[in-house]
Amino acid sequence: MTRTRAALLLFTALATSLGFNLDTEELTAFHVDSAGFGDSVVQYANSWVVVGAPEKITAANQTGGLYQCGYSTGACKPISLQVPLEAVNMSLGLSLAATTSPSRLLLTQRLPASRQGECRDHQGFEELTHIQLGVRWARDSLARVDQKEEI
Q1: How are the residues of the chain apportioned to helix, strand and coil, as percentages rounded to the nearest 5?
Q2: Which domain, by its residues, includes 118?
Q3: Is position 13 within any domain?
Q4: How many beta carbons lie within 10 A of that of residue 10, not counting itself?
Q5: 7, part of any domain
Q6: Is residue 35, in this structure, part of any structural domain at all?
Q7: What is the pLDDT, as a whole number, of residue 65?
Q8: SS3 sequence of 111-128
Q9: Given CA atoms 37, 38, 39, 43 in this order, what sign does their dihedral have?
Q10: Which among 19-28, 73-82, 112-121, 128-137 has the top mean pLDDT?
């Protein structure tokens, strides 16, 4: 009797875990002719998402870009950011994260030449802080070592 009850509980737990909350019938597809578009995506507000294109060539020795894409329109527009001159081959938008309260966007960029990355915190896409992070290569990925300074 105990095995039957345990099996029933296990089956019930597995059956309820098969669900998901992706809308497959009314999906919104965003298309931008930009290298790496969609490598990173984060929902920033209820009506739009931020999409990274870390391979987009924006200027000589500068790569990466961000797009704001609206659910209702299905359209994307580039997000303009002030990029430091020393940030070459940075892969802007390689990784994205967002919070809702307060509403903030965190984006990372990699600087392989100097092996330093920048972490920028944006609220309404206005730069609030600039944090230099010490990074090291670890099995083909960047790992945060320590926080060096906050400006």
Answers
A1: 10, 50, 40
A2: 26-150
A3: no
A4: 10
A5: no
A6: yes
A7: 81
A8: ECCCCEEEEEEEECCEEE
A9: positive
A10: 73-82
Please report the pLDDT score of residue 38 as a whole number. Answer: 81
Q: Could you give phi then psi for residue 97, rounded to 5 degrees?
A: -150, 150
**pLDDT (tens digit per residue) in 71-85:** 888 889 988 777 666
Residue 52 CB-density burial (10 A; 0-12 exposed, 13-18 middle, 19+ buried): buried
| In-domain check, residue 133 | yes
The residues with which 143 forms a beta bridge, in sequence order, are 136
Q: How many domains does the chain have?
A: 1
Q: Provide the pLDDT confidence category of residue 132 given band limits of 50, 70 and 90.
A: very low
Q: If you search the block for the tokens 């070459």, which residue do you land on? A: 88
pLDDT tens-digit readout, 3-54: 888 777 777 766 665 555 666 777 778 888 888 888 888 887 777 888 888 7
Q: Does residue 72 sit in helix, strand or coil?
A: coil
Q: How many residues does the chain have?
A: 151
Q: What is the DSSP track for 74-95?
A: --EEEPP----TT--S--BTSE
